[in-house]
Prior knowledge:
The complex is a heterodimer of chains A (about 220) and B (about 725). By secondary structure, chain A is of the alpha/beta class. Chain A contains 5 helices and 11 strands, in the order E-H-E-E-H-E-H-E-E-E-E-H-E-E-E-H. Chain A has a single domain, classed as Class I glutamine amidotransferase (GATase) domain (Rossmann fold, 3-Layer(aba) Sandwich). In chain A, helix 1 links the parallel strand 1 and strand 2 (about 30-35). Chain A starts with a strand and ends with a helix. In chain B, helix 19 packs across helix 21 (about 600-615).
Amino acid sequence: MKACVIVFPASNCDRDMKVALESSLGSSVDMVWHRETDLSGYDLVAVPGGFSYGDYLRCGAMAARSPIMAEVVKHANRGGHVLGVCNGFQVLCESGLLPGVLMRNANLKFICKDVKLKVERNDTVFTNGYDAGQIITYPVAHHDGNFFADTETLKRIEGQGQVAFRYVDNPNGSADDIAGIFNAAGNVLGLMPHPERLVEMPLGGLDGKPMFDSLIKSLAA
Amino acid sequence: MSEITPEIVKEHGLNEAEYKMVLDIMGREPNLNELGIFSVMWSEHCSYKSSKKWLKTLPTKAPWVICGPGENAGIIDVGDGDAVIFKMESHNHPSYIEPYQGAATGVGGIMRDVFTMGARPIANVNALRFGVPEHPKTRHLVHGVVEGIGGYGNCMGVPTVAGEVEFDTSYDGNILVNAMCVGLAKADNIFYCAAAGIGKPVVYVGSKTGRDGIHGATMASTEFTADTEEKRPTVQVGDPFTEKLLLEACLELMQTDAIVAIQDMGAAGLTSSSFEMASSGGVGIDMNLDMVPQREESMTPYEMMLSESQERMLMVLEPGKEDMARAIFEKWELDFAVIGEITDTGRMRLFHKGEMVGDLPIDPLAQASPEYDRPWVPTPKRAPIAAKDVAAPADMMDAIKTLVSTPNGCSKRWVWEQYDHMVMNDTVARPGGDAAVVRIHGTQKGLAVTSDVTPRYVFADPVEGGKQAVAETYRNITATGALPLAITDNMNFGNPERPEIMGQFVGACEGIAAACIALDYPVVSGNVSLYNETNGQGILPTPTIGGVGLIADVDKTIGMAFVSEGDAIVLIGSTTGHLGCSQYLAEILNRTDGPAPEVDLTLERKHGDFVRSEILAGNVNACHDLSDGGLGVALAEMAMVSGLGASIIDGSNDVPLHGWLFGEDQARYITTTTDAKALLVAAQAAGVTATLIGEVQGQDLKIETAGTISVSKLKDAHEGWMPEFMAHPDFED
């Protein structure tokens, strides 16, 4: 099982993601610079949080057009797994790998706090460490996490079971309380909350750890 | 070049005597470029001309201090080859004029001060002071400042973990934005600003130079008047994205041996950075301004030398390393330009379009800047107030509820939830407690960081108030289990040309110095902000203290939340019921009289050492320092963060109950423990006053003879004020 973390200019959760993956994997995870063009050999590509390109223009829009993202799309189309967190989720939406878009939070403020999430399904490589319907805690830290899609798209997402996590107490105005979604094939997950921030007791909890453990166990098999 | 008239000299903030010194140093009339350079270099902001004499009296040494004041930031040794680099700096005037950009660039500037020395910033702290809530500008300023701090720090990916927010009418026309950054470096890879090596290239990196912020340092050195709004063009605009790239590029280059010296371009931009580098290295610099990357066309030498465009650095490189360095900066999509070279002339010579447009001697200008011994008068002592002469509240529990729900006593969650306080995944104790604790990445070590000052105490008694500010940071750090190591001081005062204001400054320095010595807790960096006045109305004297402490094992750190029902609550320290200058007096009785509490530094040290050792031994499971609002408020705070109540025995004895509950006597902590007897025995052995005052119990705060209130009711009141206040539109008709 080989994993890497993509680094854009002003990615800032890249190290956090690498550390979380490495602690579950037990071996080293590569950092891949946005100008690189080769992702062969990786089972899992993580697109981390941050402020790629300063969030100028629209969050994730410029990063989605960087050379490496063409490779991430190819990797996903080959059936490779992709995890996008926070800015990474925004990049995946902007690159077309996931439906919908992340708009400014309903209260127009940056929000950093722990939130409760409901795990919608546990029959995926990303979530099989949780119980279906389990309520877990992940932190959010974003200014633009308000998930939006048109009615038809939302209906499709819901109908195909693409919702991964829902907010118990919606902090940002997201449609249908959606905190994270899969692509139709189930090999790409994007979510606003940060599982990598709760993987050690000194940081306040372990609720994020099962995601990394299950990913690594499933993809290694 | 235009002739220098007295009007031009005055516009440059130089008085007659100072201009005479300029003429003496130059041996001729300066041209406009040269005058502009003198003006910023000798501004109060850059030269510390009013404060230098007193700053020299502060203790700055300890075995763990690697570098004290004078460099970009102070450095302490935290063992295992790790060094912590930190400083606090004000951005008051710009933040009042343009709150978002003023605060943002304050945060950006202090982070540059830290990473220019080779440290990766790992924690930000902010101490904010605004006018009263009912002042028409307050809400707008709070919105802008908080968003500016968040906008910059969040994008940088540096957690903002602690701070203060206070409201007082003295800040109505002059808010305070004090930003502190704490960074981590390797002790053997620290970078300084002293230039060296004749012929070595002087290199400019980062953003291009524009016309923003020209004369910012001079603006920060005058009082505000009604035309302050017109100063808007002097406020700089921040670009945290570029700064993040600059941080990564600098740290990458610092892994090589290319850098001889490096200095960030902060206040007074290219002028102060180049003069500081040349002056501390005892060399000269020839600078070709044509090579300076410029954002706008036809910029004059005057504009380039005085611009305060953000996100720029000046470096001296080893010859032959330019291409390697350039490749790193180009990878990060930043400008890189060789703009000059080190000379042996001892002069700064500026060239533009083939002409020499400035030629100044470096040492006389940088080091012989004016130093004033301004007249000062000590602040008169206030008459004591006995608790028995102060009216008791109608209902003690209502008074507690009021004190935790006022603008100054309420929860500041609304503020810190807009700051990413967890990024970097090392925040062990989040905002809202006594001090935040940030782990040193990849180790078990943690840094405790906090900022404190009680301006109303400093106003009443600058000496005791100065001591108290230092002591409160000491207690806040101690309450987490960490050992306080060093402080940074951000001295915010009014107009130093008024003897009573200068007296406040002198008194505060005396108090801070005494506390630093007694607590073995030196000053390693700092910043002075004077002229914080609007239309002759000075702010409360506000020497903000930022403290840093170390704990060897973050698993041993504790918080202030009650842990389990049945735990005993033990008060450390004695209570005389000091109500002078207290929060109780201000909020319940609307009085601001009486003396500040006296700070017994020997007791602070003794109690601090005792509490810390009991925490590290695992004998205490929660701890909170007593400050604003005294025992009653501290108990309420411990209850609110845990959701657990407490049953408290009336321990007031001969102190009136309201004095016992609300007195602000110093050197006190509340601790909780599963073994009260052992803790009391240990306290007795250490000669520390410790009193069992109750136990953690139920969901109500119950105080014998005072009454009962539910913790949820307290919490609603505590969390309620700030969001409700901020929900109103910025401007109301």
